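Slide 14.
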Amino acid sequence: MSWSNPWFIAALVSVIGVFHLEFIATLLNLGRLGRAIPEALAEVFSEETRAKLADYIRESTRISFTQDIAALGLVVVFWWSGGFGWLQSWAENQGHGPVVTGVFVIAIIMLAQTWLSLPFEAWDTFGVEARYGFNKTTPATFIQDHIKGLTLMAILGLPVAAVLVWFFETQALAALYAWVFIAGFSILMTWLSPRVIMPLFLKFQPLEEGALREAIFALARKLDFPVQEVSIVDGSRRSTKANAFFAGFGKTRRIALYDTLIQSHSQEEIVAILAHEIGHNKCRHVPVMMALHLAEMGIMLALLGWVLKSPDFFAAFGVRGTPVGMGLILFGLVYKPFGVLTGLLGLAMSRKHEFEADAFAAKAVGSHEPLTEGLKRLSRDHLAHPQPHPLTVWLHYSHPPLIERLAALTKISL
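Slide 15: predicted structure.
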């Protein structure tokens, strides 16, 4: 490591710079909690709710910020004490080839990151989330979920890591091959996740015959949106927060409703929320976002292929040679600012899509009122920030703030 190495400077600026950007955004966002609530949101957030959500957001932010500081400190200490170089040398001394060694290094660092985050997740789940009435997860379920997550990471993640390391170790067109491989894997996981992975964590049961089921299928027929089944998910076993999602392709589409959504929302609101989700499909948002994601992935892999050929890049972290497995980890530190920039476009596009899906839903059900009431209830029940700072919205929000969505809905011509 040397201050004369431009990669060292770039990595340091990347790690410290992104942290400070997030810190500034956090302070600005917290500062807006004391603002007077706009008249349009006065009926949504009572005085009692405002006080409660302010405390909840502050406490949640405290945990997140403490975790970020701890992670930053550990990375810098490990880096500047020669930890990356020591880990690479130790892994190489085990006598395996470059692919196995690379996967070994990746696995160790990913496992360390997972374990280091556990205390903060437990603090959030059994501290803040429980104190504000959201958490329903038991310690046994919490532990089981993490064991399942680590198992899946080993079964799915390690083979993917091995393929990527092999590409960049042996192939001249590694970036292109890796891009094709990751694209195919992403599509496979989109199909596989609701059928194999999600049932490991959530219990799916068919929605019983009744008015809600009939209303959902009537909406699907009206909008020419084929649905194979509607399921109820036992989300209440982990949290009181409500959710709903679509999964599958073509005629195998399935709708999943969290039981908490059914418990807290009217039939009209649920149908409007589902119409919003159908709107994403009808407006072709899914392929647009997938294309954007793949374009970003292509840029990232091209940069990765270039960086992995530079001994100076590895030397900036105290690593000798150009070991690909370690390079995949280190590249993530340098790529942070580029990731923020490319992420901005995706988030802006996503917020635009939410407005379009809201408009589609209002027209589909013949009124903006059901969706408006559903959005108000979701924001209130989830203790969402009523007036997030524009910088925070810009950096993190995939959905527009509530007040903007409500204003847009009232202007829709039905």
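Speaker note: The chain is about 70% helix and 5% strand.
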